[in-house]
Amino acid sequence: MPPAPELALTLAEMHLQGWTLKGSCRRCGLQVRVGVPGLIMVHGPDAIWWGKDAPCPGWDCAGGRLIYSARAVNGGTWTCVSTTRPRQELLDRRSGKAPDLGPR
Ligand SMILES: [Zn+2]
């Protein structure tokens, strides 16, 4: 099953799922492997990476954005993390605003 916010919302959950994360820049074509443990060290295990992008670290790249993608297994489908936003319901459930109704 390709990555989705329903499977792993936070960085810690992505790490538990064993997903591979990469960043790529459409402006300069740079591709970087992103270590989930490294992100956890900087941003904390509860950070939500869905909907996030970052400035491109490319030396000669002005204004490019690093777009993140994740895949669950080698050869699997890449899911774009940066353009996928978790459903509000998922976020509410996590922040305790809505009661957890359990699996439906
Ligand atoms: Zn770039």
**Shape annotation:** globular
Ends distance: 19 Å
Radius of gyration: 15 Å
Q: Tell me, rounded to a whole number, the average pLDDT.
A: 92
Alpha plus pi helix count:
3
The helix fraction, in percent, is 10-25%
Describe the largest sheet: 5 strands, antiparallel
Secondary-structure-based class equals: alpha+beta
Poorly predicted runs are none
As a percent range, the share of strand residues is 15-25%
Helix-strand pattern, N to C?
A: HEEHEEEH
Could you tell me the number of beta strands? 5
Q: What hetero molecules are bound to the protein chains?
A: zinc ion
How are the elements arranged and paired?
Elements: H1 11-17, E1 20-25, E2 31-34, H2 36-43, E3 53-55, E4 65-71, E5 79-80, H3 88-95
Antiparallel strand pairs: 1-2, 1-4, 3-4, 4-5
Zinc ion binds at residues 25, 27-28, 30, 56, 58, 61, 64.
Summarize the structure in words.
The mean pLDDT is 92. The chain is an alpha+beta fold and 104 residues long. Helix 1 packs antiparallel against helix 2. Helix content is 22%, strand content 21%. Strands 1, 2, 3, 4 and 5 form a five-stranded antiparallel β-sheet that branches. Bound molecules: zinc ion (ZN). Zinc ion is lined by residues 25, 27-28, 30, 56, 58, 61, 64.
